[in-house]
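User: I'm putting together a teaching handout on how sequence relates to shape, and I'd like one worked example. Could you take phosphoethanolamine N-methyltransferase from Salix viminalis, show the sequence you're using, and then write out its predicted structure as tokens right after it?

Assistant: Happy to. First the sequence, then the structure tokens directly below it.
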Amino acid sequence: MAQLFCEFEVADCTTKTYPNNTFDVIYSRDTILHIQDKPALFRSFFKWLKPGGKVLISDYCKSAGTPSPEFAEYIKQRGYDLHDVKAYGQMLRDAGFDEVIAEDRSDQFNKVLRRELNAVEKDKDDFICDFSEVRDYNDIVGDGRQS
């Protein structure tokens, strides 16, 4: 019987390297928006995956076209590198991936976000006691409401 092996690592994905054909799956949740050179990262993903490997990315995107001045300022303030869903998918294709499904899952994300925010707000005192300062709590809830 094959032994399953799972390892977690905290590293800078823009500088960390791995041998080709290392991973069965690469998963990223809401982090690649911080990476300025997504094409280089996706080329690395392609090399690092074993044949038949999968990539699952959940990330923030923007609508096609020019964002509103307010949203453009928000993006700049945060240092985000946002693209629309179609462009995101094309970057993966350009990196070598041929079975790319790029979907706008905003409705699903918003439902999950509302559920998570409600849970945090319901247990505000416990959250602040266990994890952070009041300011951190307000930042989390405020950012969630803005999304």
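A couple of points you could highlight for students: The longest helix spans residues 106-122. The two ends are 46 Å apart (CA to CA).
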